[in-house]
Design brief:
The chain is an alpha+beta fold and about 325 residues long. It is built from 11 helices and 10 strands.
Length: about 325
Amino acid sequence: MAGDILSQSEIDALLSAISTGEMDADELKKEESSKRVKVYDFKRALRFSKDQIRSLTRIHDNFARLLTTYFSAQLRTYIQITVGSVDQLPYEEFIRSIPKMTVLNVFEVQPLEGRVLMEVNPNIAYAMMDRVMGGLGSSVNKIENLTEIETKIISSIFEKSLDSYQEAWESLVEIEPMMSEFEVNPQFLQMVSPNETVVVISLNIQVGETSGMINLCIPHVVLEPIIPKLSVHYWMQSDRKEPKPNEIDALKKQIHLAELSVSAELGSSNISIQDFLQLQIGDVIQLESTIDQPLVVKIGDKPKFTGQPGKTNKKIAVQIIDHLVRGEEDGE
């Protein structure tokens, strides 16, 4: 059996059986390979790659940090929020995994279709409400008997946290989260079909002395339009930020102040190395251009204009008479 440790006598008996032909090594290999076959459940089809799950984890890591800052300011107590896990599973399985009575915040994420569900452990919700109302943050689980005022306070706490959710996604897509429904019984909530794949992000949260979970349930239909953006390739491209208008203006100003060398070339000629080594003062080199041809004016080391020599204020000068057309290089 797999996982069992064979004794020396059992090993000797196995080798003896193979050598005598009582057992076939090829049959053993086939049997072993057949054991590796796994049953695939089409009701629990994996529709997100590991790469896309990592991207969602990255987004919600940022959301957890933003949420920690927000709740710390609102509740004025110790808050710690971290991403516990990111999984994909059927919606029906997620609903069965959460308590029968809990805090369910449903919100839309326009312009994306569908809705997102935020399930909050009742102990956490009551601890937060107690802090908002001036208490020490003690927790009492009486979720089935929520008053109208308590419902309003709890829903308001998490509705304001949606600004942090919008900020967490802004590097990938612009969304406008808006609370649409508050519920305490998951049986009365049917966002998608039972077999629809959803991504569940579980956040571990500590509010003072109380700890619990916040689960975010995102249906596949919500993420479907932006699935290509969840790849690493997109993240690497998005990390390159476009310069702002004021940065562009400052860059143009610096470029305008940059100095360039300008030279006018009278002409050129080819000579041998032997002739070059024998040059003496007073020797004359005949240029290939004639006296009536325009000079080539170079900017840096690139020919850009044609000009004619002359004088201005008793100084040698060159007058630009035309652009030097050089095909595609003319635009440089």
